[in-house]
Specification:
This protein is of the alpha+beta class and 225 residues long. It is built from nine helices and six strands; from the N terminus they run βαββααβαααααββα. The chain has helices at 17-33, 58-66, 69-85, 102-114, 116-131, 140-149, 154-162, 167-179, 202-217, and strands at residues 6-12, 38-44, 56-57, 97-98, 187-190, 194-197. α1 (17-33) links the parallel β1 (6-12) and β2 (38-44). It starts with 5 loop residues before the first strand and ends in an 8-residue tail after the last helix.
């Protein structure tokens, strides 16, 4: 068990299947490290900010990206296999809309002001709702339902989505990630100085967190080592 808490910021997008895998892998690593091992926060990223607010037909959108149904199915089959190993039941056939995720990220940002635990619950619920249930997480009513399901205040969430609350902060955070050179997600930032890219296996994340925790405990991070 590690006893020094490491801050882990995860840059991700809730329509990224690799981010869903990355979340599950991180939570598995966390369970082995101990409850106090990590302070977890979620930072926004948009894989495609050009998607309109109303979303796009997902099949057409995926065809535009992959070029053929065969290539789409191949990618989905691989993700289903990887997901099964960590308890994710990817149901790509249920997904009808490729959503714009800006409003989902605004909701995630607000959840983070309530507590890190609320933020992580919301992120997990959004991933599950989209990838396993096919819900349109760009739709305000769907977002409100998901927020309600994890115990968030629906009236406050509705007002947030109705206005531009947190829009500026989310866009600035996305720009900051891009300035750091982050172009793909998930990306794990340990103590805001060590970067792990991609949906790494739990043991890779666990070992990295242990090493950073040890360095932090020894004062090596403060010394810039």
């Amino acid at each position: 068990m590690t006893t020094t808490t490491v801050t882990v910021d995860v840059v991700s997008d809730v329509v990224c299947p690799w981010c869903y895998l990355g979340m599950r892998n991180l939570l598995q690593a966390w369970s082995k490290l101990g409850q106090d091992a990590i302070s977890l926060y979620w930072r926004p990223f948009q894989l495609d900010p050009t998607v309109p607010a109303a979303g796009l037909d997902r099949q057409e959108y995926m065809l535009g990206k992959f070029g053929s149904v065969e290539r789409i199915n191949s990618a989905h089959d691989r993700l289903k296999e990887l997901g099964k190993a960590v308890g994710i039941a990817f149901n790509f056939d249920a997904i009808k809309v490729a959503p714009n995720t800006l409003d989902a990220h605004r909701l995630i940002y607000w959840a983070g002001t309530l507590s890190p635990e609320t933020q992580t619950r919301l992120v997990a619920a959004l991933f599950r709702s989209y990838f396993e249930e096919g819900r349109n997480i760009g739709d305000h009513e769907a977002l409100l339902a998901i927020a309600s399901e994890i115990g968030m205040n629906t009236a406050h969430a509705r007002e947030l989505l109705r206005t531009d609350t947190n829009r500026k902060e989310v866009l600035e955070a996305i720009t900051a990630a891009q300035r750091m050179g982050i172009s793909g997600v998930p990306c794990f930032l340990l103590e805001n100085r060590y970067v792990i890219s991609g949906a790494q296996p739990p043991e890779v994340l666990e070992n990295a967190i242990r090493q950073v925790a040890e360095a932090k405990a020894n004062g090596e991070l403060d010394n810039g080592q």
